[in-house]
From TrEMBL:
Hydrolase is among the record's keywords: yes
Gene3D superfamilies in the record: Metal-dependent hydrolases (3.20.20.140)
Pfam family name, one: TatD_DNase
InterPro entries, per the entry: DNase_TatD-rel_CS, Metal_Hydrolase, TatD-like, TatD/YcfH-like
Family annotation (PANTHER family): D-AMINOACYL-TRNA DEACYLASE
Binding site for a divalent metal cation 2: 127, 153
Cited NCBIfam families: YchF/TatD family DNA exonuclease
Keyword Metal-binding: yes
GO cellular component, one term: cytosol
Protein name: TatD family deoxyribonuclease
Length: 257
């Protein structure tokens, strides 16, 4: 299995990161994508990837932190993306739930990341919350300037964004949210997305799936995310993990199989 979204540099893993990775590997996780949320965290994220043959990383600035990196350039992102273990741009996007960064700052940050993804040919990891229409508008507008790979990660958006994303060839990742009892709307939308466009993630240490909901999440819990998707499509865990791994390796095509 390939956990396509792990925050291994997080404080929650500071004391026992190696034990967490050992448990994941025992569970069958063979690849991890370590996510960069702030450009000044990139060295720490990269160091984790450099130290492990089965971990790759991204480079980017989460929309929450856009205000702190308004001087970041497309060229800065492109240079970082030249590293052999850096296989995607992001996570980036729009998040209007908390308003930690102003709307204009988030949009400018988002567009810079898109430009870097287009220039490097690396897929773009997109976080979007309470910004479905504007996210779709920006992706469509930027796509006119040249194609780029898109992952709408930890997808909890609506049907309209899903449909517009699919029209751009986007992939969608599902997390432990899919297993939550109250996530009926999420399951309804995910059920309409073709399986060949879905990949798995934990987003650890956040969003632990049932039966671990409320605890610290970790990559070893990825099979429970697979189970939730399998139940939605009346397939086995093995069928789902095989399909989603193939999809992830197609999307993150810089990952050395």
């Amino acid at each position: 299995m390939f956990d396509t979204h792990v925050n291994l540099h997080a404080e929650a893993f500071k004391a026992d990161r190696e034990e967490v990775l050992a448990r994941a590997r025992e569970t069958g996780i063979r690849r991890f994508l370590a996510i960069c949320d702030r450009f000044d965290n990139y060295p720490a994220v990269k160091a984790i990837a450099d130290a492990n043959d089965d971990i790759w990383n991204t480079v980017g600035v989460h929309p929450h932190h856009a205000k702190d990196f308004q001087d970041l350039t497309v060229e800065d992102l492109i240079r970082a993306a030249g590293d052999p273990f850096t296989v995607a741009i992001g996570e980036t996007g729009l998040d209007f739930h908390y308003g930690y960064s102003a709307k204009a700052e988030q949009i400018a940050n988002f567009r810079r990341h898109i430009a870097a993804a287009r220039e490097t040919g690396l897929p773009l990891v997109v976080h979007t919350r309470e910004a479905d229409s504007l996210t779709a508008d920006i992706l469509e507008d930027e796509y006119k300037n040249g194609p780029f790979g898109i992952l709408l990660h930890c997808y909890t958006g609506g049907q309209e964004l899903a449909d517009r994303g699919l029209a751009l060839g986007a992939y969608f990742s599902v997390s432990g949210i899919l297993s939550f009892k109250n996530a009926k709307d999420v399951r309804a939308v995910i059920s309409t997305i073709p399986l060949e466009r879905i990949i798995l993630e934990t987003d650890c240490p956040y969003l632990a799936p049932v039966p671990y909901r409320g605890r610290r999440n970790e990559p070893a819990y990825l099979p429970y995310v697979a189970d939730a998707l399998a139940a939605l499509h009346d397939k086995s865990r093995e069928e789902i993990t095989s399909i989603c791994e193939d999809n992830a390796l197609t999307l993150f095509n810089k990952v050395d199989i």
